Amino acid sequence: MRPPVDYFTDAVLRAPTIGSMLMCLAASLVGVVVFLRRESLLGESLSHAAYPGVIIGVLIVAAIGGLSTGALTIAACVLTGAFITSYLGLCCINGLQRWCRIHADSALCFVLATFMGIGLTTASHVQFTHAALYRQAEAYLFGQAATMIDTHIYMYASLVAATVLTILALYKELQTVTFDREYATTTGINVQRMDIALFTLVVLAVVLGLRSVGVVLMSAMLIAPPTAARQLTNRLPVMFLISGAIGLFAGFCGNYLSVELSDYFEAQNPGLRLALPTGPMIVVVAASVSILALLFSAERGLVRRLLRAARFRYQCICENILKSLWRFGPKHAATLDELAKYQSVSRLYLRLVIVRLTAYGWVVRLRDGRYRLNRDGRRRAAHIVRLHRLWEVYLADHLGLGIERVHRNAEEMEHIITPELEERLTGLLADPKEDPHHQPIPPKQEL
Fold this sequence. Notes:
Strand content: under 5%
Distance between the termini: 68 Å
């Protein structure tokens, strides 16, 4: 296994690694604005729209001399054709939305399918008439980062520089246009110019990124890093930094894993020729980071939200059990079956919650297996009942709802009323003594 530093110094590994990292950095920075503008499908459409240009570039190369023209000329023709058709696709998307009143999603999908269909139809002819050139064009369909040279480093460095300088120079305008286009117009910002600047960067990032990850996967590099970054911050400058860092990380790890895992599998199974392409591995790494962020981020992570929901549900069950025992009265001890009638949970979960309430010191388990509130439990249960009935009074007397409609809402609100809200309700309702059903409200001084 090679040390990571070899990927920046080795003559063979240096260009694919640094070139891919720079490409991913540029794509992830541009992708932040695309993601925030909710135009995530734009990168997918433009990358597919570039494919006919790739084939047209091949035909131009064939017309001016074929493979003898040199690798740089071939790359220049192919990328120029890709840029032209990609920008043409962008114009078609805007035209369909503006003049034909077609929804954005429909316009994006139409351009994606149409241009890709034209590209594949043309490619089916070129693969027989110019087979050698067509094989080189395939690198732009699926990506071929492993064959990069040092020239690609300078190309991607120029793209990164153009992207960073544009974002820094137009940061305030881009921020305003991204979050509030109408306000941007009223402040005198040329919204159309901002759109042109952004879309030009998107087209450049897509076209130049085809060499690394290909037409099929390029859109993932526009969206995956910003998706992960959005889960980790609410600030736009920080989001740019995190997204760029994720792009760099994905570019390096994609190259590293592609080489190391391929060598490992070959060493373990000499007869099995298993190669992991660099472009797809870059996308896999970026997607994995996004999935981890979506699952485990501190504020928006799915796991965190599920834990919060489970904790709140547990709190509601605890308070409902205390309230049920309170309603049975101080002299009545309830069985597990009696409590289960009022709870929509399994008996096992109910038993576990009661064990926890006993450990908290709110519930006492008698020798015959029944349960009863102790003094602290009755005080806490009475407070829950007070919140419930205060809210009923508020709904009935202050909002004018019928008494038959207040109970269900109060069942939900009793679990989330804060002490501050309780104080405001008490003052607003003049500390009522009965709820709308003429049931006494436990006084606060006794709680």
